[in-house]
Amino acid sequence: MGKYIGKRILQAIPLVILISILTFTLIQLAPYDAVDSITTPDMSAEYIEALKEEYGLNDPIYRQYLAWAKKTLSGDFGYSIVTHSNIKEALSQRIPATMLIVIPSYLVALMIAVILGLIAGAKQGTLIDKIVDGFCSITMSTPTFWMGLIFLYIFSYKLNWLPSLGMYTTGQEKSVKDLVWHMFLPCVTLTIAFLPQMIRYVRSSTIGQLAEDYVSVQRTYGATEKNILFRHVLKNALLPLITLVGMSLPMLVTGAFVTESIFSWPGVGPYFLGAIRGFDYPIILVILILSSSLVIIGNLLADILYGLIDTRIKDLGNS
Amino acid sequence: MKVLEVNHLETSFAIKKNKFLAIRDVSLHVDEGEILGIVGESGSGKSVTMKSVVGILPSNGQVESGEILFRGTNLLQIKPEEKRALLGNDITMIFQDPMTALNPLKTIGYHIEEIIIRHQKVDRVSARKQAEAILNIVEIPDAKRRLTQYPHEFSGGMRQRVVIGMALVNSPQLLIADEPTTALDVTIQFQILKLIKKLQAKNKMAVVLITHDLAVVYNMCHRILVMYGGKILEEGTRTEIFDNPQHPYTLALMESIPNLESAEKSKLEPIEGIAPTLDNMPAGCPFAPRCKHAMAICGHEMPTKHTFSKTHSSYCHLNGSNPAHGGSDA
């Protein structure tokens, strides 16, 4: 197993490097001069040239890349070229804020999805399956921003039960109750957004497992349906979910762009969208690298976990 | 003593809202200590008959009428929990494909112990002891270690031994073996059959062996049923069927076996045509369209049972004028 993990990590490193080169190059190719975002029309050409020199924008691309990579690796993400604020500092507040709504929503969605997916899969074709399936179809085709706005309209504006924006009520920054209150709507919106894909995943996986030969063998040996579902099918059906969860790891950073924007949640979403609008390329680069690294790490973790649970894969890695 | 008795069983399948009878008026019985072979080609209904007995028909299948008596109890009329108490305990089954019969994420030990605990209500320790013993009985070496391993660590033949172990661990009275060796290569096939026969004789089990392999039937079975198109066409002891086949279909089956021992060059006689499908079942004898000896009556009227001895009977309009010995060729 150790050998397998080591092999997988070694494979991941060149991938991260490749992604960073690609992202960096793509930004360079954009029809836009990075210096434009810090200049104003009344600046002299000499001044602009000096700025370019200062930011290293006149160096060849590979030199710029190496300089940037070296800085990033040492943990220095640089400064926003628009607001001149420290990117690392900004992210260290915004990433936890995003996680604060993404993690609970994801976990709740996962739990609901396992229960509903398992029931729907086990009772395929019955009324309850059709209800679950209908719920999935509706929520899947509902845009998150629209759902968020509807929630805002009903629960904040009409009923005035829940706050409509931000993380805190001014003056109550330390209150956990106030925070949870503010988290409520964004979390519900996110949970509903996460749900349909997960339910469908669990449902089809359950149906697939129930059609396996070993299930009918168990029936022939006197196992009850409940017994088959919980002792045999459950673990096998949830196994592919590991991959889904692993691939969701980048959501910790990028999982709630739309929702955060609707609810003015001070997470990574609004920060990133703002950076794109202002062509604040140091921010764009850092977030892209971060999320793509998380994709790779997520896949790696999923593979390792898979190997630990399914011994067939572990043995494959050793041979 | 009859362990299993099936009377006038009819099983149907629903295909696109139409019902088709896959099993038509099948009656059979197996005695204690007896191996009954059911032979027939794919789609003849041999597997469906036994799936009806155990109650694992696919969701569109249904037993329409008849009775299935296990030691006198009609399995079609008892409660599901009473049925489950019998399954895996008094009635067990071995399947065609040992590669998929086991849950890939559970150890071999778990599979066997689960069945022991389910039916004997004993604790894990005692179940483990029994599981170890049964692996020894089905001749899997190094039983203690093997119990902790997963199915993928076993070869096909070894997995079939595990399944046989699962089937025998609660000392069943009836074992149904549905093509137990079809997925295995010939040398392993021989070992597995020898094992089944040995354990059957030791436990005085009744065994129903479903196969399309006549050599297997010849080596294993006391009595033989020949099925075709959902019906029994001929029934008899091993000697009666092999030495004196009465139905043209049985005869055709015999002729389609290659004979390696015969010195003279004999041509292999395949049976022309294909077996009828459910939605295209002939009105009379199901074999009539492919039968070399078919007469006008065969096409529209199902022949009645013709008895040759206490154990030997056949359903054919030739009524014993054995085609092998110069019957009508009309």
TrEMBL record, chain A:
Specify the ABC transmembrane type-1 domain's residue ranges: 95-302
- Give the protein name, as stated in the record: ABC transporter permease
Give the family per the record: Belongs to the binding-protein-dependent transport system permease family.
What the entry lists under PANTHER family is as follows: DIPEPTIDE TRANSPORT SYSTEM PERMEASE PROTEIN DPPB-RELATED
SUPFAM superfamilies from the xrefs?
MetI-like
Organism expressing this protein natively: Fusibacter ferrireducens
> Where does it live in the cell?
Cell membrane
The record's annotation in Pfam families points to: BPD_transp_1, BPD_transp_1_N
Which PROSITE patterns does the entry link to? ABC_TM1
Against InterPro entries, the record matches this protein to: BPD_transp_1_N (IPR045621), MetI-like (IPR000515), MetI-like_sf (IPR035906)
Q: Which UniProt keywords apply?
A: Cell membrane, Membrane, Transmembrane, Transmembrane helix, Transport
Topological category with respect to the lipid bilayer? Multi-pass membrane protein
Q: Where are the transmembrane segments?
A: 12-32, 99-122, 134-159, 179-199, 238-263, 283-309
TrEMBL record, chain B:
> Keyword annotations for this protein?
ATP-binding, Cell membrane, Membrane, Nucleotide-binding, Transport
MF GO annotations:
ATP binding
Please list the residue ranges annotated as the ABC transporter domain: 4-254
Tell me the PROSITE patterns matching this sequence: ABC_TRANSPORTER_1, ABC_TRANSPORTER_2
Q: Topologically, how does it sit relative to the membrane?
A: Peripheral membrane protein
Subcellular localization is given as: Cell membrane
Q: Could you tell me which Pfam families the record lists for this protein?
A: ABC_tran, oligo_HPY
The UniProt entry's sequence similarity note says:
Belongs to the ABC transporter superfamily.
Its name, as the record gives it, is ABC transporter ATP-binding protein
User: What's the source species for this entry?
Assistant: Fusibacter ferrireducens
